[in-house]
Structure formats: structure tokens, C-alpha cells
Amino acid sequence: MMSSKLKTFSLTIMGLIFPAVSFAIVSSSAASTIYEIIARVYKFLLMISIPIAVIIILWAAYTFLTSSGESEKINQAKKILMWAIIGLIIVILSNGIVSVLGDLLEVKVPIVE
């Protein structure tokens, strides 16, 4: 039997991922170039990664609040939070990073809206 925490976590993940999948699938035309395919995959991953980062930040907060003063759990929560924030910053800045790399390598980079 599935525990209530696992059931709640699973439902939260499904609630966040399924709308992103449906928005990524709905398209008025098929991708014709490799650049369009890459742009669509990037947009899909962006829509999934931000909610996942928020969930990981909430997990770090939960770990911190339930640590009961244990320094090992507090340090674990700090590490989780630090890496989640670093990942979120990379995701947010990724479009700019891709544009700069495209300019440096003189490669056509599709703009992701």
C-alpha cells in the first residue's frame, strides 16, 4: 500500500508535468528543421524544470523544518537548497547562454518564446 506522503508527491508531480506535456504536444504545424525540433524540446524541458526546481526547494524546506535541530539534516537541507537554486538560475539564464554560445560559434539559434 502506498503511503500518503508518496501518494501526495506523485499527484503533485503529475499535476505539474501533464499540463506541460499537453502544451508541448499541441502545435499548429510539424517541425521542419532540426532547429525547430531543438527549440520545441528546449521549451518543453524549460516548462518541466521550473516546477521541478520549486518542488525540490519545497523538499529542502521540509527537510529543514523536520530536522529537529540535527546538524546533519540541517546541512543536508542547505545543500539541497543551494543546488536547487543554482539549477533554477541556470534554467532561467539558459536562453541567454544558448544565444551567446550561438553567436560565439556562429550558429543559427532559434528564439524560444
Structure description:
The structure is a single chain. This protein is mainly alpha-helical and 113 residues long. It has one domain (4-105). The protein is built from three helices and no strands. Helix 1 (4-25) runs antiparallel to helix 2 (34-65) and helix 2 packs antiparallel against helix 3. The model has no long low-confidence stretch (mean pLDDT 77).
Which SSEs are present, and which pair or pack?
Blueprint (H helix, E strand, L loop, with lengths): L3 H22 L8 H32 L5 H35 L8
Give the radius of gyration: 18 Å
Multimer state: single chain
Number of DSSP strand runs: 0
The percent range for helix content is over 70%
Reading the helices and strands in chain order gives: HHH
Low-confidence stretches: none
Count of discrete structural domains: 1
Number of helices: 3
Short structural summary:
With 113 residues, this protein is mostly helical. It contains three helices and no strands. It has helices at residues 4-25, 34-65, 71-105.
List keywords for this structure.
mainly alpha, 113 residues, 3 helices
